[in-house]
Every structure is written in structure tokens, then in C-alpha cells.
Design goal:
- The structure holds two protein chains of two kinds.
- Chain A is mostly helical.
- Chain A is elongated.
- Chain A starts with 6 loop residues before the first helix and ends with a helix.
- The longest helix of chain B has 35 residues.
- The radius of gyration of chain B is 22 Å and the shape is globular.
- The model of chain B has no long low-confidence stretch (mean pLDDT 88).
- The chains are: A mainly alpha, B mainly alpha.
- The interface between A and B is large, with 60 and 57 residues.
């Protein structure tokens, strides 16, 4: 029997899938750099532009994993004071935290889109392989947008007492 | 309001948010962005918010973060901690306090591959603690040596702490790795001497384990030699300038995967787990780094770090007095804060003071990491103590009761590192790159 699909469940599913691609990006980055070193020292034929590909992969990993990490509440916090508070107070603090993070994400998304538009005007590309930077700026922006969505779901869940 | 006062208020706002439980990365982002709007106006702040998250993350140096994390997590999931302990135990277990010394040595070796303090403490807690209890070791000594040994993880390369320090202060990560190597080995020696002395004074604390034959000793190397060679390959490669720290991270991760697969220690589920954990920690670091750089841009505009440096010079006190104050500051915040958060939050203000005082930035990186290591085992919030307590079910109070000899050893070790900078700088100075 099909379970009822809510927008929140669909968003979470999308985030899990996007997170999976960040796992793939890490493996590609490891393989690429390893292959570059081996080819350089053994065959004297390094992979052209491997350094800038690694940089772009790093952006991809960040963009694809940020929402996932937020979903799992994996960010660092200092809880020496909040541990002394009641559960109810901590839930309020969580909501404030999510609102602040969501608020800053709401600024970062258009700021990165603006950076993309400016970059497109200047036709910003990498030095060796001339890969356009624009899609990667957009990917990072997409990551912050997904993070924003996760935080909205978290706010709703915290307020309704669903989130522990 | 003067820009420096705005800077100080920005620091205050950020600390307030952090203590109220806001994520550290978010607190830095919000305080940096709001402060920037106040000082430079919204359009400029908006531009910074669009450039920094991309330019700081599209970094070849930052790419070594997921690679080393992947290497460390892969290795720690394969049960190498048990083999390292078994090997150290066979070689040194028969001396007074031998099992505890073996634990410390295994912690050092595990750190060399894993690079994380709490992971070392958790892994050794599961392996070494039951063994020491079996031989009638004192519970305080057994648990405290694991908690203290775990701290070596952030000093012996590869260390995530050094990567963050290098990123934030624009220092060579390769040199920082080399700078932590000898102090890390010295730390193992200091702990071993401490344990041996304790057991000489009170033999009941740590009885000797049965003697082993040379054949058994050599046979015990079977499970660890490949990983130790991998470590030497990675660190040796950086030292010789054969590869960059990022390349070394990739080779290390690939090598760790290959060894684990060949030795059939890494199942598909463990592989999936290691890569998931890597991604999550990387994303956490991404938010921290983004927040740190936006906050640093704001501080630079406010001129607060420059004014703080000028203030320190105007004090006309010896630079060593300043250094002692900074060391005490880091030991204290190390007791309360996560090392990475503490580093990212304080470096923008402290590092300019260190530079203007004429201290070597590589050497200071070692000192800072060492100070915060001490905080990981001291009350009230020594992270390693809590991690060990949850992995071995030893009460926190018992572990804290046993750590004091190790804290004293730490302070002696730290004093030595401060008085003889060459201990840290010898290897980096020998590097050609």
C-alpha cells in the first residue's frame, strides 16, 4: 500500500537523493587525484586540469551535502549552557537556530544567483580546461536552497513537537 | 559608533548566539553579514555573501578535508585499533604498566591513520579497556590512559585541526603536519613514562602481562604493517615534496580502501557508512569555513584585529607574557569548546597578535593544538572523557579522577614545546617545499 506523500516527505526524499550524489563526488575526487599522481610519476602524463576539477568537485560536494547534513542536524553547536535548560526551552532555541540559519540561507541563495549572473557576463571559466564556473555557482545556490527547505520542515516539526 | 566598536559588538553578538545554542557556522554568518551591512551597506554585504561561499569552497587545499576524513573513518571501521593494540601489547605488555603503555602507543599509531581524538578514544575504549580490566589494572589508570592517548589524534598527522589552522591562517598544511610529528611522538613517550612511574610507585595499579616470544612479537605485526606503511608513504611523500597534502589525502584514502578490501575487513555496509559520515562531516566543515571567512571579512573591515594587535604592542610587556596569556586562554576554552569551533572562532583575533609579536606561525599552530588537546581530558567538559565513558561504560567521575597525572605530563610536554621551538620546527625547516 502506498504511503501518503506529503511535500515534506518528497523534499526529504529529494535531499537524500542529492546527498547520494555528494557521496559519488567524493569517490570521484579521490579516484581522480590518485590517478593524477600515478599517471604523473609512473607514466609522466598527468591529468590536465586535475587541480581545477578537484576544486569544482569540492564545490559540488558542498552544494550536494549541505542540506543532507542539516537534515541530520550534523552542524557544530556549543551546548554547555543549553544543556541546563528544559526541553521546552531547548525546542524554542532550536526554532530560533533554524530561523536564523534559514534566514541567512534566504540571503545566500539570491546572492549566489547574483554572483552567477555577474560571472556569466564576464564569462568566468577555469584557467586550464575553460570549464564555466556558472553551473557550479548555481549548484551551490541549489544546495543552500535545499537547506532552506529542510529548515522550514524542521521549524514546522519543532513547533508541532514532532522533532526530538 | 567607531568601526572597531562595531567589530567588538559583532564578536559579542556571535558569542551570544553560540552560547544560546545556535550552530557555530550560522552564528558567524549572521554576525558577519549584519556587521558588514552596518559598516559597508547592504549592496556590499550582499556581494560578499555571494562571493565568499563559492570562492572559499572552490579550494584545492580544502579538498583534502573529505579525503583525510574518508581515510580515517574507513580505517577506524575496519577494526585496525584492535590489531594495533595487540601488536603494542605483544611488544611492550610485559613491563610494569605495559598494557597501559601499549594502549598509549596504539593510540599514537591509530591517530597517525585516523586523525581524530574522539574516534581514537572510542575505538581504544572498546579494545583496550576490557583487556586491562582482565589483567587487574586499576580502573582509573586504565580509562584515563585511553582518554589521554586519544588526544594524540589531533597532533600526529594527518590532523583535521592542522588543516583548519592552515586554511584560516594561510600556512602550509604540509609544514604543519611535519611540525606536529615529533611533538606527537614525544607526547606518546611522556605518557608512557608517566604510566611507568605510576606503576613503579604503586605496582598494583598496572601489573605486568605475561612475557611473549620474539616469534609472537613479529607475528603480531601481520595485521598492522600495511596500514603503517601507508602512513609512512603518505607523510613521507608530503615531507619529500613528492605530493601535496591533498594528493596525499587521496592516495591515503585510496590505499586505506584497497588494504581494507583486500584484507576483507571492509564490508559494503561499512563502506557506505564511512562515505556517509565523511559527507556529513565535510558539510559541517563547509558551513564553518563559510561562516569563518565572512566573519573574518567583517572583522577586517572593522579593523578590530589590527587595533587589538596595536593595543598589545602598546602594553609594552614581554611577548612571552602575551604568549602565556594566549596559552592559558586556549587551555581554558579547550575545556569547554569543541576544538574546531574554538579554532575557527578565535584565530581571526589571536593570529594577528601572534604574527605581530614575532612568533613562528607554524610553531604556534602546534602549541595551539597542544593546548586544546589538554582541554579534551580536563573537567568539566573534556570531550574524550565523555566519548570514552559512553563507549566503555566507565563513569565520567572515575575517568576524571585518573587523568590528573596525564594533565601534569601534558603541561610538562607543552612547556618543553614552548621553550624549545626546534622540536616542532626541525622537520618543517628541513622541507624543501
Amino acid at each position: 500500500m502506498l504511503k501518503k506523500l506529503t511535500p515534506a516527505k518528497i523534499s526529504m526524499g529529494v535531499i537524500e537523493i542529492v546527498g547520494f550524489f555528494s557521496l559519488v563526488a567524493i569517490v570521484i575526487m579521490m579516484m581522480l587525484t590518485t590517478a593524477d599522481v600515478i599517471l604523473r610519476y609512473i607514466f609522466d602524463r598527468p591529468i590536465l586540469g586535475s587541480m581545477e576539477m578537484t576544486e569544482l568537485l569540492m564545490v559540488s560536494i558542498a552544494g550536494l551535502s549541505l542540506a543532507w547534513c542539516t537534515l541530520k542536524s550534523g552542524h557544530i553547536r556549543v551546548d554547555i549552557i543549553t544543556n541546563m535548560f528544559s526541553k521546552k526551552t531547548n525546542r524554542t532555541i532550536d526554532v530560533v537556530n533554524y530561523i536564523l540559519t534559514g534566514g541567512i540561507c534566504a540571503f545566500i541563495v539570491p546572492a549566489l544567483i547574483n554572483r552567477y549572473i555577474e560571472g556569466e557576463k564576464l564569462d568566468l571559466r577555469t584557467y586550464v580546461l575553460h570549464i564555466p564556473e556558472g553551473p557550479f555557482v548555481l549548484l551551490l545556490s541549489f544546495g543552500y536552497l535545499l537547506t532552506f527547505l529542510v529548515l522550514i520542515v524542521k521549524i514546522v516539526k519543532s513547533m508541532s513537537g514532532e522533532e526530538k | 559608533m567607531s568601526p572597531a566598536l562595531v567589530g567588538a559588538l559583532g564578536v559579542g553578538l556571535m558569542l551570544l548566539m553560540i552560547f544560546m545554542g545556535v550552530w557555530v557556522g550560522t552564528a558567524m554568518l549572521v554576525a558577519g553579514f549584519v556587521g558588514f551591512i552596518y559598516l559597508e551597506g547592504f549592496p556590499r554585504a550582499f556581494t560578499v555573501l555571494g562571493t565568499e561561499p563559492y570562492s572559499q569552497i572552490a579550494s584545492y587545499v580544502l579538498a583534502c578535508v573529505p579525503l583525510y576524513i574518508f581515510m580515517g573513518i574507513t580505517v577506524s571501521l575496519t577494526g585496525i585499533a584492535g590489531d594495533l593494540y595487540n601488536t603494542a601489547n605483544k611488544w611492550i605488555g610485559s613491563v610494569k604498566g605495559g598494557l597501559a603503555i601499549a594502549t598509549t602507543m596504539a593510540c599514537g599509531a591509530f591517530s597517525a591513520i585516523c586523525g581524530s581524538s574522539d574516534a581514537s578514544a572510542a575505538a581504544m575504549g572498546k579494545v583496550a579497556y576490557p583487556e586491562m580490566m582482565k589483567f587487574g589494572y586499576n580502573q582509573k589508570l586504565a580509562s584515563a590512559c585511553i582518554a589521554a592517548g586519544g588526544t594524540i589524534g589531533i597532533l600526529i598527522p594527518p590532523s583535521l585541526g592542522f588543516i583548519l589552522y592552515g586554511l584560516l591562517t594561510e600556512q602550509s598544511i604540509g609544514k604543519l603536519y611535519m611540525a606536529g610529528f615529533i611533538p606527537g611522538i614525544l607526547e606518546v613517550i611522556f605518557y608512557s613514562i608517566t604510566i611507568h612511574l605510576l606503576c613503579r610507585i604503586k605496582p598494583a595499579l598496572g601489573p605486568s602481562a605475561p612475557k611473549t616470544l620474539l616469534r609472537e612479537k613479529i607475528y603480531s605485526l601481520k595485521g598492522v604493517w600495511a596500514m603503517l606503511i601507508l602512513f609512512l608513504f603518505v607523510i613521507g611523500g608530503i615531507y619529500a615534496g613528492v605530493f601535496t597534502p591533498t594528493e596525499a589525502g587521496a592516495l591515503g584514502a585510496f590505499g586505506a580502501l584497497a588494504i581494507s578490501f583486500i584484507s576483507r575487513r571492509l564490508t559494503r555496509s561499512k563502506f557506505a557508512q564511512s562515505i556517509k559520515d565523511t559527507t556529513q562531516i565535510t558539510a559541517m566543515i563547509v558551513l564553518l569555513i563559510t561562516g569563518a571567512f565572512i566573519f573574518m571579512r567583517f572583522l577586517a573591515v572593522s579593523r578590530l584585529p589590527a587595533m587589538l594587535s596595536e593595543f598589545v604592542i602598546a602594553l609594552q610587556v614581554s611577548k612571552f607574557v602575551i604568549l602565556i596569556c594566549i596559552i592559558l586562554f586556549y587551555i581554558i576554552i579547550g575545556c569547554f569548546w569543541d576544538i574546531y569551533a574554538a579554532m575557527i572562532l578565535t584565530l581571526p583575533l589571536i593570529f594577528p597578535v601572534i604574527q605581530i609579536s614575532g612568533f613562528d606561525p607554524i610553531w604556534f599552530g602546534v602549541i595551539m593544538v597542544r593546548c586544546m588537546e589538554i582541554g579534551q581530558i580536563t573537567p568539566p567538559f573534556g570531550l574524550n572523557v565523555f566519548v570514552l565513558s559512553s563507549s566503555s561504560n566507565v563513569p565520567v567521575k572515575t575517568i576524571f579522577g585518573g587523568v590528573w597525572p596525564f594533565v601534569i605530563s601534558d603541561l610538562v610536554h607543552l612547556t618543553l614545546l614552548v621553550l624549545v621551538p626546534q622540536i616542532s620546527l626541525f622537520l618543517p625547516n628541513m622541507m624543501r617545499h
